[in-house]
Amino acid sequence: MPAPAPSASPPAPGRLQGLTPAEVAARIAAGEVNDVPVRSSRSTAEIVRANVFTRFNAIIGVLFLIILIVGPIQDGLFGFVIIANTAIGIIQELRAKKTLDNLAVISEARPVVRRDGHSAEVRTGDIVLGDLVEIGPGDKCPVDGEVAEADGLEIDESLLTGEADPVLKRPGDAVMSGSFVVAGTGAFTATKVGREAYAAQLAEEASRFTLVHSELRSGISQILKYITYMLIPAAIGLVVSQLFVQDHDWREAVRRMVGGIVPMVPEGLVLLTSVAFAIGVIRLGRKQCLVQELPAIEGLARVDVVCLDKTGTLTEGGMDVTGIRVLDGSGEERVRHVLGTLGACDPRPNASLQAVVQHCPAPDGWRHTETLPFSSARKYCGASLTDTDGATTTWLLGAPDVLLPAGDPALASVDELNTQGLRVLLLARTGQPLLDPEAGRGAHPVALVVLEQRLRPDAGDTLRYFAEQDVAAKVISGDNAVSVGAVAGKLGLPGAETTVDARRLPEGREDMAEVLEKGAVFGRVTPQQKRDMVGALQSRGHTVAMTGDGVNDVLALKDADIGVSMGSGSEATRAVAQIVLLNNSFATLPSVVAEGRRVIGNITRVATLFLTKTVYSVLLAILVVSSQVPYPFLPRHLTLISSLTIGIPAFFLALAPNKERAQPHFVRRVMRYAVPAGLIAGAATFTSYLLARHHYTGPGALAAETSAATLTLFLIAMSVLAIVARPYTWWRIGLVATMASAFLVVIVTPMLQHFFALRLVGTVMPWTAVGIAAAAAVLMELSWRWVGRRFPA
Fold first, then answer.
1. For residue 664, how many other CB atoms are within 10 A of its CB?
2. Coil, strand, or helix at residue 286?
3. High-pLDDT (> 90) share of the chain, %
4. Superkingdom of this entry's organism (predicted)?
């Protein structure tokens, strides 16, 4: 999708003109350009490096080289599997990168720069030193600078300094990149661009692709770290036992050692995690969902509370004025003139003011002498207006219950309208100075402006989805609580009939959390309160997602476990959110939740397969070293078993649909099954091997013993696969049957028997191996059920 065409405005007299084209060209030639690279994903080189140069690829690579030296090539099959896995991982992540980069271009912010008196949109990277950058509500400052023009300009620097209160900026004041405008308009001169602007670097790091904390990734890393510690002593023990104790040829000893070490490495687990994330990004990208941080897919699957901003989430951005109710006998025409002039005062009106502007055009002859832009914190805007007769009056337009004292007769009409889900603004006269924090005190109500909000047609279905998935939805809005509750009630939100006015919320975190647990709709919430409410819910152990599109949502989005912004939202919200819904559809969220659940649930499944193999491989190595017998397997045997019972089926299982709710404690959930399953598999296989050693004699005895042990281990591994593949569907049954059939083909085909050094001798021992595997499968099923009851996740 091409970038939007630059919009330009003609030069206006009496304002700063900005740089000339010649000055811009000179700055570009001097390298004074804002050239900080902003990427939505890792570079191609980083992707290749991350997939190739891993700890386990290094281990497997060394073992593969050893096998190439000692031969035969059949025992080096595991090396080709690793090469294929790495290639798959690189290809999938490059596909995900392409998807992310394309979506990032669509959502890229394009600041407005004034050059030679003309205002035009440019890429952030095209800003040069000395450029005059225009800013308004919701804009993020792309570079450091100095304020040149200001009209009620208020900037929030909390993401950089930690100070929550917006800062009123006047000409000459400094502007930090990464801060954002909450009210008013203005322009600043760029004084630091590119890497010289330290705050810009921080903002870039915060908003670009990062591997943030992920329980899945950290859990796998923790498991792999312990496995690494076991590899070296296991390798030494196996080499010593095979070379000296059994007096083997050194080539045979090395092959047996490699056969014992390779299956301990769950190399495919890391690959499948990366592939699952990458494919999730691609799937969501097709639905116009930009995932700015990959583990956000996982995080949203763990969410149990989602906080929704009403405007732009449950309702569409636009509004319509459905009526004007005059309260004090003033003529409606004069009220319309006041409203039209008020709207014309703000060059960047919000949705409510845009509706007013469309309904009440600006009259001729009226002018403003002083303005106060709308702020989410104060809930009103204002201006001092001079009419055609030369009389000057100060007007305020905003929330009736903020501008009027409790009990005012006008509030009765407001409450009646709010219960219908309508939004109401109060137009009032005031005798107080416009910039006085108490400007609303003693305000005289003149008229009510009634606005109708457009409900999103898909919002009701989305709320029902969250209710079915046991995800609590909390509507948190700056609007009147009764009005918000009426809108939520129309959409079927449970608990919408009981609303809470946030001005009456307790300030203590614990007390606030208590109210939040019980309530579902909260109105008159300030931006700082949104942030506090997210923190209060998190203090109760909740994983919180926050959605929003306005500048008043930025602080809460940043603090939430998962921030979700609408693509049409302010630049500041898109910069701090982990997920951006470019289609502006709240209905996309269930797809993100489902994708996260698919990734986590399926990786938990396949991790059980991989780590069962690790456990039985470690146990077999210990038993071999302690009992001083030849290691039962060559690398080719375990490559065959791993491919048919783990590698191939795990790839399909990792990408299958899965709607299970994500559960915490990944490592514990996996190991509680993998450890007993691995111990049973290792013990049963070694038992079969020892019986075969007593049964077979002569020159070909070791090959026959290995074949019997391989048969036992394969059947047990298949039983683990059959358990992990539940609940059964036609394709899961087909997958298990296909893998079993493939092993049968190997057993009965002479050429494959020779290639894999597998030949079952006689009937007694093979059927004994089958019997041992059947007994182990029954024991494994019983242990699986016992573990599920005894150690619930």
1. 11
2. coil
3. 24
4. Bacteria
DSSP bridge pairs for 396: 382, 428
What's the one-letter identity of residue 481? A
563-578 residues labelled b (16+ CB within 10 A) or e (exposed): bbbbbbbbbbbbbbbb
Residues 6+ apart with CB under 8 A from 322: 422, 450, 451, 452
Q: Could you write out the DSSP letters of every residue in 174-211?
A: EE-TT-EEEEEEEEEEEEE-GGG-HHHHHHHHHHS---
The one catalytic residue among 131, 144, 156, 309: 309
Query: What per-residue confidence (pLDDT) applies to 352?
Result: 83
What separation in angstroms does the CA of 585 have from each of 19, 210, 320, 679?
40, 25, 20, 49
CA dist 276 and 603 (Å) reads 8
Residues of the chain by 3-state class (helix, strand, coil), percent to 5: 55, 15, 30
What is the reported pTM? 0.72
Distance between CA atoms of 746 and 740, rounded to whole angstroms? 10
387 noted as active-site residue: no
Residue 624 · residue 736 · CB < 8 Å: no
Question: Which of the residue ranges 61-70, 100-109, 375-384, 675-684 would you say has the lowest mean pLDDT?
Answer: 100-109
pLDDT given at position 146: 93
Looking at 286-373, list the stretches that DSSP marks H as alpha helix, in order from N- to C-terminal side: 296-302, 332-345, 351-359
Longest dimension (CA), the chain: 119
**Which token pair is 47?**
């992707």
